[in-house]
């Protein structure tokens, strides 16, 4: 069963742009053993297909179906960027 732990939550982070934010999230997913290192490429590719921005300051970056084989176990990493991150089109 999936459980969110304190180690999965990253408040007060900083990123200069969405690519940097995605790379930070990907690194945390790798460190937690959720994905292989190459998964970040799928996350960046997915963002090029269409934005993962949901609204109200929330985005859920994730990989493409082509990188699904790099997912090792279910998990999430929650990042909070108090200064915000421009996600494109003024988002």
- Terminal CA distance reads 34 Å
Strand content: 5-15%
Kindly provide the name of the CATH class of the domain at 17-79: Alpha Beta
Order of helices and strands: EHHEEE
Helical residue percent?
A: 25-40%
Rg? 13 Å
Question: Your description of this structure?
Answer:
There is one protein chain. By secondary structure, this protein is α+β, with helices and mostly antiparallel strands. The chain has a domain of 63 residues: 3-Layer(aba) Sandwich (Mannitol-specific EII, Chain A). Helices cover 27% and strands 10% of the residues. Strands 1-4 form a two-stranded parallel sheet. Helix 1 runs antiparallel to helix 2. The chain is globular, with a radius of gyration of 13 Å. The model has no long low-confidence stretch (mean pLDDT 95). GO terms for molecular function: kinase activity; protein-phosphocysteine-sugar phosphotransferase activity. Keywords: Kinase, Phosphoprotein, Phosphotransferase system, Sugar transport, Transferase, Transport. InterPro entries: PTrfase/Anion_transptr, PTS_EIIA_type-2_dom, Sugar_PTS. It is an enzyme of class 2 (transferase).
